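Q: What would this chain look like folded?
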Amino acid sequence: MKRALAAILVLAALAAPLSGCASIFDQEYLTIEDYAESTASPQQPEGTVAVQNYLELKLAINKLVTAHEERGSLDFSGYDGENIRDDLASACNDVRSETALAAYAVDYISYDLDRLVSYYEAEVFIYYLHTAEELDAAVKAVDPEFLRVLERASANIRAFHERQLQRDYILTRPDGSMLGQRIIPMQRVGLYIPGGTAAYPSSVLMNCIPAKIAGVDEIVMTTPASGGEVSPAILAAAKVAGVDRVFRVGGAQAVAALAYGTETIPRVDKIVGPGNAFVAEAKRQVFGQVAIDMIAGPSEILIVADKSADPVWLAADMLSQAEHDRLATAILITDSAALAEKTAAELEAQLAVLPRREIAGASIEANGKIIVTDDLSEAVNIANEIAPEHLELCVERPFDWLGRVRNAGSVFLGHYCPEPLGDYLSGTNHTLPTMGTARFSSPLGVDDFIKRSYFSYYTAEGLESVADDVALFADTEGLHAHAVSATIRRRGRSE
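A: My prediction, written as structure tokens:
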């Protein structure tokens, strides 16, 4: 009777193919044995494997993987189990996580479960993960010197962000009560990496590494594929940073897939990474269903410079951001009119030979500014009002002015610290607040991939010492039940 009832419930619950996947764990290998011919179902199609119990179910799925089959049929007519649906889901997960070959080769496993008169049959579908092979191939395809730079940048980013790790803590009081904080990493994070007008392997490092340090279980990446192929540099960066899965999809549809999940792309807890206006709008619309890093606008650089600065260097720094996007902003603020004039002339000269001069030129024409102030104090005040993404202090004594900076995503000090250092190699994160949001928001870091959870424990003595205070607070706010909850334990247990 119990088995019949379970079968009815299974049949009623079937609405769509289910899938199971798990993280890669270091487990023992499954022993794979040949199957004996089964006679449980006299009319089973050729190639259908009869399974009698949960172990045989796992072995059957595993055998499909070892043979690199993409699908297989399972017959449950003689199955000794009360909930075939749950067993099938668990077996897919177990094979994916416990078997070394499956952990390496399989993306995910799904199935269709059907009732055939008096028994169940399942069609199992195995989707193989080619990403690992692609990443390995990408590492071999890229310039060895670039791979060396990727590794160096990765090490610097890790070293900087590891200092951001928060710790659990417990506060213990004399009455035995305890209060604490737990730091809990998110389970799955989605990275969106652009691949349109330019490919950005640096963004892979900047977004993935802090998540890895935070302890995120799984990191998946979506990126557009130009001509069906993802940039080898992006794939190599994904390999170096530790991305778990890569999907060839871009645009707003990639954001939607990460937010809601598809048959192939898993739903994530948070979406991070830069993108165009459509990607930004998609992130805005899915916020609340998932977390997002920020709504990033076009790139910005603001330079505060005195007469000690080199106009050739200043022009190069302004163009380094202008070439990102026609909507990018590059601003110079200086107390030297002569420096302002020389920098303007140098901008024209460098633009003429810049490969991305059309984009950079449009940016400078629309949003480029050179402002002359009476003194550096006024220049810094203006910078704080603008709250730029990148702020360069190209002045003789930059540390004298650092304490005056209130609003900036990232600050670059001195004549020998151009903004591209932060984009690629120094170790600070280049995912920064834009459009004035540095007034109230921060760069991407480890904290963006964790949650804080609080806990409390009180002894009877501890509660008694504060119960009246809690009740008074509650009664003052007109919440009598709150007061009762704090004081009712004085009556003792109700049993």
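The chain is about 40% helix and 20% strand.
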